[in-house]
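User: quick one, sequence for these tokens?
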């Protein structure tokens, strides 16, 4: 049994990024567990003074889930030319714990533009030693025009998502 742990950088109900994660979840076979993390909003603001072996409970839970994952998938929009604060906050709590270190990771930035957040995320994931490859990295711009009524309607986007997901699965086989 393999375990994929995913995080959305958007907390918005009906979020395009959440729709993408639900779509990828629907693609997995029976021998794979695909979790969409629902605790982003419950992670307290990063505090280096609390960043130790006994962190806040929600942070400890997040670190356990990350350490148990065979692969991690992050899907995020861009806000104000950067990474959404809630997602960056989650990532800051993983610097000292090394939760991403050497872990197969995929990054999807799905946004109106998204170039800035995408570039920043690649740097951040590099800093925390996530195992990211060009095949597990995807920028989808104009995302709202590619989804209709909760369905990804753009064929190229569906295809690119399939390629990325299979590349991620290959790394954990
Ligand atoms: C506060 C705010 C700031 C935003 N800033 C950007 C931005 O700088 N670049 C961009 O590509 N999209 C920006 N957007 C648009 C988002 O990309 C768009 O709303 C996207 O659909 C959000 O992802 P979601 O559908 O998963 O919630 C912004 C949206 C909000 C609400």
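Assistant:
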């Amino acid at each position: 049994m393999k375990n994929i742990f995913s995080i959305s950088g958007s907390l918005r109900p009906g979020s395009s990024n959440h729709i993408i994660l639900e779509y990828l979840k629907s693609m997995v076979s029976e021998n794979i567990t695909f979790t969409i993390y629902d605790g982003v909003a419950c992670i307290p603001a990063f505090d280096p003074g609390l960043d130790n072996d006994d962190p806040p409970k929600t942070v400890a839970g997040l670190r356990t889930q990350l350490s148990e994952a065979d692969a991690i998938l992050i899907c995020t929009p861009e806000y104000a030319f950067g990474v959404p604060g809630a997602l960056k906050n989650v990532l800051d709590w993983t610097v000292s714990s090394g939760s991403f270190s050497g872990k197969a990771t995929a990054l999807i930035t799905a946004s109106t533009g998204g170039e800035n957040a995408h570039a920043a995320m690649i740097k951040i994931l590099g800093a925390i030693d996530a195992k990211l490859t060009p095949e597990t990295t995807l920028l989808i711009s104009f995302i709202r025009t590619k989804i209709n009524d909760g369905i990804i309607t753009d064929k190229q986007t569906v295809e690119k998502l399939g390629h990325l997901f299979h590349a991620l699965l290959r790394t954990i086989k």
